[in-house]
Amino acid sequence: MDPMDIVWELPPQNFVKINVHAAYRADTLPNGNNSGIGVVIRNHEGNIIRMITGTIKGLTRENNQLWAMLKALQRVCIENLTHYILETDDRNMINIIDHYMEGGVGDQFELAHQIIHIIKDQRFVSDFELVDSNRNILATYLARNGGETRDRLYVVTEPFGRVQEIQNFDLGLAPLEQPFWEDEDDYHEELDDADDYEELDDARSYDE
Question: What is the pTM of this model?
Answer without folding.
Answer: 0.86
